[in-house]
Specification:
single chain; 541 residues; alpha+beta; 8-stranded mixed sheet; 4-stranded antiparallel sheet; 16 helices; 27 strands; 29% helix; globular
């Protein structure tokens, strides 16, 4: 099932603040040269929607302003080395303070931008760790003035959904524009969807159908020695959950899992919606495979600004492993929004954090337009994209066979060039672009995974099940690595590709529409699913 994608405000007294800022910012004189924030406008807006009017001048809107890291490509170079098992720098991650000192904007640069925003009447909120993300907010009229654009109301031609968006790319005084890569929140067209397929009931071992924890762990050869004890896993969510459902699941399977912690970002996700099943699926799958890991659920608003802030909150927390089950087709996003989220992932990779994202449940056509397209953030080169399979286990809960699931997202990115660690498996169909997915796990909805949600047992599938299956493996690996005195897995892709298929179940049958499974890496299942014991041994080296 797919479902859709604010602000810690420090209240200031405008009169006092305006008096303290440079006169050039306070007046923003007409002759001040301005420059656009490239790519920060919805693609094909006038072709896919009809303008219906102006956003009310007094409507309050929250924005998250992303800054470009210092040092140009230096951050990319650092992440490449710290994530490469063959590098002497492998596993030597940066602390938050080290990252900020090396790649964050200076305090003076941040102050210049804050002074400008306040001079336009905006309230400046939190400056996140790393000095690369600033929260702000104000009325539509204030935002239009600050960013040199107009905000209009629109109606989507296909869905009929109403939304607002900036008519043109935002602009800033030239001296500031070079610092800014994205202003998230100027449109609310794209809402992220969750990758959990509709619940079904099937005749399997779990109540209501679906695989049990024992079947998942047995199928993927998860040793009973490692339970995730002492490890932390984050979940990115845009909806909430009911602890009573999690307790019912844990009790039924005698898991004894710690109660998940909730961290609300920008006020949280609001009242429970149809994404509740997603959140409860994510938690319960983590408990099934890594029952003793501590899970923190980051709940944020389903908006551009909420998405960036929630990812940043996860990086700020330092939690080493994150499972992501929400996304949208690359073509549905602005270029600058993708760049802003990518920058957060890159910062996380530098600090030893790993992200596992569901690749989507629409096969090779994530955008649903009859072509081939992939889901973001699974296509991000600093994220491990997780596709879908159909796992079969024996009566003794051992691996029997596995085929590609038809709904599993996969294909080539239209945004990112192929990263260096993926060139060894470069396919002509990829055309030199990032290839998705990297790995895969059980996602087929019949049987799906046995879960308890919204007061009943059922079987749920989708790559939303596959992503936490891999995040759970990462937690188990980190527990094993800690015992061996080694670093966390961190951004896993370079190490997974170095493994060259060792420790994976290579899936060679099935398709996701445009692509078929084959020996080795492929566009349907990547390297395949994990054999936990052998893959951990290979990665530990």
């Amino acid at each position: 099932m797919k479902s859709r994608l604010k602000l810690l405000g420090l209240v200031a007294v405008p009169a006092l603040i305006t008096a303290a800022v440079p006169a050039a910012y306070a007046s923003d004189a007409p002759h001040t040269a301005r420059a656009a924030v490239a790519g920060d406008v919805l693609p094909g807006l006038k072709q896919s929607a009809a303008r219906t009017g102006k956003v009310a001048a007094g409507k309050r809107i929250a924005v998250a302003i992303s800054l470009t890291p210092r040092g140009g490509s230096a951050l990319d170079t650092f992440v490449a080395k710290v994530s490469d098992p063959h590098s002497a720098s492998y596993g030597h991650y940066l602390t938050k303070s080290q990252f900020a000192a090396r790649f964050g904007r200076t305090d003076a640069e941040v102050k210049r931008l804050k002074d400008y925003l306040r001079a336009q009447g905006l309230t400046v909120g939190k400056v996140h760790s790393g000095n690369l993300l600033i929260d702000a907010g104000g009325t539509a009229a204030q935002l239009e003035k600050a960013f040199g654009t107009k905000l209009s109301t629109w109606k989507d031609t296909a869905s009929g959904r109403s939304f607002y968006a900036n008519d043109s790319a935002p602009t800033l005084p030239a001296a500031l524009a070079s610092l800014v890569s994205d202003v998230a929140g100027l449109n609310n067209r794209v809402q992220l969807h969750h990758q959990a397929v509709s619940r079904t009931v099937s005749p399997h071992n779990g109540p209501g159908g679906g695989y049990t924890p024992a079947q998942l762990k047995g199928g993927y050869n998860v040793s009973g020695t490692y339970t995730g004890s002492g490890q932390k896993i984050a979940l990115l969510e845009f909806d909430g959950f009911q602890q009573s459902n999690i307790t019912k699941y844990d009790t039924n399977y005698s898991l004894g899992s710690p109660t998940p912690t909730v961290q609300k970002v920008d006020g949280g996700s609001g009242s429970l919606g149809d994404g509740q099943v997603e959140v409860e699926l994510d938690i319960e799958v983590l408990h099934a495979i890594a029952p003793k890991a501590n899970v923190t659920v980051f709940e944020g608003p389903n908006s551009d600004a909420g998405e960036v802030d929630t990812y940043q909150a996860i990086v700020d927390s330092g939690i080493p492993t994150t499972s992501i089950s929400w996304g949208a087709a690359e073509s549905a996003r602005t270029t600058s929004n993708i760049n802003a989220v990518d920058a957060v992932f890159k910062a996380g990779a530098a600090q030893g954090l790993g992200f596992y994202a569901a690749s989507g449940d629409d096969g090779s056509d994530d955008a649903g337009d009859g072509g081939t397209s992939v889901d973001y953030p699974a296509s991000d080169p600093y994220v491990t994209g997780v596709g879908g399979t159909k796992l079969t286990v024996t009566s003794a809960n051992a691996f029997s066979k596995e085929v590609a699931w038809s709904g599993g997202g996969g294909g080539k990115s239209s945004v990112f060039k192929i990263p260096s660690w993926q060139t060894a498996v470069q396919k002509s169909a990829g055309g030199g672009y990032r290839q998705v997915p990297d790995v895969s796990a059980h996602a087929n909805p019949s049987p799906g995974v046995s879960i308890y949600s919204q007061g009943s047992w059922s079987s749920v599938g989708g790559t939303s099940a596959a992503a936490p299956e891999w995040a759970a493996f990462a937690a188990l690996y980190n527990q094993q690595a800690a015992a061996a005195g080694k670093a966390n897995l961190g951004f896993a892709d370079p190490a997974l590709y170095t493994a060259s298929g060792t420790g994976f179940h290579d899936i060679t049958s099935g398709s996701n529409g445009a692509y078929s499974a084959a020996t080795g890496w492929d566009f349907t299942t990547g390297w395949g699913s994990y054999n936990a014991a052998t893959l951990a041994s290979k990665l530990l080296g």
